[in-house]
Amino acid sequence: MSHQTGIKANNELKEFFGRCRDGSIRALKISICDEQLALATSVKDKRSYTWDKCFDQVVGSLVEENQPCYILYRLDTKSDLGYEWLFISWSPDTAPVREKMLYASTKATLKQEFGNAQIKEEIRGSIMSEVTLDGYYKFKKAAVAPAPLSSREEEIQEMKRNEVHTDYSITSKQQTLGGVTFPITSEAEAAILDMARNSYNYLQFRIDVEEEKIHLVTSENVNVDKLASKLPKDSPRYLLYNFKHTHEGDYMESIVFIYYMPGYSCSIKERMLYSSCSNPFTATIGSLGVEIAKKIEIDTDSELTEKNLYEEVHPTKNLHRPIFAKPKGPPGRGPKRMIKSQNS
């Protein structure tokens, strides 16, 4: 995952990272101070409690109502590298927007400096109930289970599964085969969940043709004028972008799904797979809590501009269609002729 702020851990925090892995520390809180990642406080381990028994007490004492922070909470399980940790990104709804964006954009840096391999899981909270033990278990359950469908949605889904057409012809524009559903990686799923919580405004995905999986390429916060520079010249991509704009005086945020296929520089197999996986992938995105306002297909990066996005999200409505006017005949035709019927 990419980061944009350039904020790094200060020397004190780096040294503490080296000392806190022996099991003596249960949790540590990290804040951004003076454009540096700094240790705010730490909580020593109570040997008489397992990680879940003291979770609510420890985490509850570290979070503040209006101030974002990061919390690294040590679990009791171990890997080859030592104890495994839970990474908590606390970004309350009541915090200033600038603070929330700053913490979201620096998160990848902190995880990298601590060690991604030792972070077993990650959760994000914006209200207190999401950073409790019960909230953690609900988050895990939601991450692996699709959102429940209504009876009508289940009926539509079943109809789509059975909707396979076999009427082939040269001019046919019907879908002749159902979409292909490829699984997405856990990293891609986590990024989509993060976007649903406003951690990122831009996600880029690719299909691994051999592995037949959808992978995350990058997740970050990108200005609209930098979108085109993020695209490769000769490889297809799926993009998710939270287009923040004003329309008729109102501030709006619209999630746009962009299917990018750079012409015929891609193989036939790639073009077929990206086309077939597009609809099932957007359905998966929706089930993870990201509501797509508009789907767009482009074949060049030059199409990815603020003006084009706006026109796609808010197409111009032609409310005053001109009345069809019968064209005048050619001049100098003379008077109309009268044609007699044969019976007269």
From TrEMBL:
Q: Which InterPro entries does the UniProt record give?
A: ADF-H (IPR002108), ADF-H/Gelsolin-like_dom_sf (IPR029006), Twinfilin (IPR028458)
Q: Residue ranges of the ADF-H domain?
A: 1-141, 179-314
User: Main location per UniProt?
Assistant: cytoplasm
Pfam families with a match to the protein in the record: Cofilin_ADF
Where composition is biased (Basic residues), the residues are: 334-344
Q: Name one GO biological process term.
A: barbed-end actin filament capping
- State the UniProt keywords alphabetically: Actin-binding, Cytoplasm, Cytoskeleton, Repeat
Q: Where is this region: Disordered?
A: 321-344
Does this UniProt record's set of keywords contain Cytoplasm? Answer: yes
Where does it live in the cell?
Cytoplasm, Cell cortex; Cytoplasm, Cytoskeleton
Instruction: Extract one GO cellular component term from the record.
Output: myofibril
Domain of life, per lineage: Eukaryota
GO MF annotations for this entry?
Answer: actin filament binding; actin monomer binding
Q: Which PANTHER family match?
A: TWINFILIN
Q: What does this protein do?
A: Actin-binding protein involved in motile and morphological processes. Inhibits actin polymerization, likely by sequestering G-actin.
Q: Which family does it belong to?
A: Belongs to the actin-binding proteins ADF family. Twinfilin subfamily.
Assembly: Interacts with G-actin; ADP-actin form.
**What is this protein's name?**
Twinfilin
Organism, scientific name: Photinus pyralis
